[in-house]
Amino acid sequence: MRTFVLKLLRWIERYRYIKFGIVGASGTVVNLVVLYLGHEYIFNTIEANYQKPYFSLALAITLATMNNFTWNRLWTWADRVRQLEAEEAQQPVSLRLLGIEFGQYVTASAFGSGIQYVLTLLLSSSMDYRLANIVAILAASVSNFLANDRWTFKRHKD
């Protein structure tokens, strides 16, 4: 069993989109937990009048984006981040570089977040808001990967 797990981990390590998907799954958990807690408890008195999770959804997307940026930077695109830090001759974590990357990540993910937000609200009128959110997350994931792979964590010349 140990050998199988090690082989599986090595295989996953080779495929960036699979790592992106695993990080995205963790972000989905964060998103759904925050969405539920926000809609059912934190913003309950505000959102009960609207019957839609406006504030909860905005908070859920924000926290999931921060989660995903952190793990994508540390794992999915760690090789490119290390290369960029070496090129810039910076300390292991430069606040300037971190700020630039986070700004690019948020900008690159904004389109997908917009798709997720609008699609969740549209679909939540015909299905449970949590299921609507999962469908919307899946729809937005491809554009998020491509934008972040080609811009935020792009390859740098050797």
3D architecture notes:
It is a single chain. The protein has helices spanning 2-14, 16-42, 44-47, 54-76, 78-87, 95-123, 129-152. By secondary structure, the chain is mainly α. Helix 2 runs antiparallel to helix 4, helix 2 (16-42) crosses helix 7 and helix 6 packs antiparallel against helix 7 (129-152).
List the helices and strands and how they pair.
Elements: H1 2-14, H2 16-42, H3 44-47, H4 54-76, H5 78-87, H6 95-123, H7 129-152
Radius of gyration: 18 Å
Shape: globular
Order of helices and strands: HHHHHHH
Weakly predicted, low-confidence segments = none
What's the end-to-end separation, in Å? 39 Å
Helix content: over 70%
Structural class: mainly alpha
Strand content: under 5%
Summarize the structure.
With 158 residues, the protein is mainly alpha-helical. It contains 7 helices and no strands.
Provide keyphrases for this structure:
158 residues, globular, mainly alpha
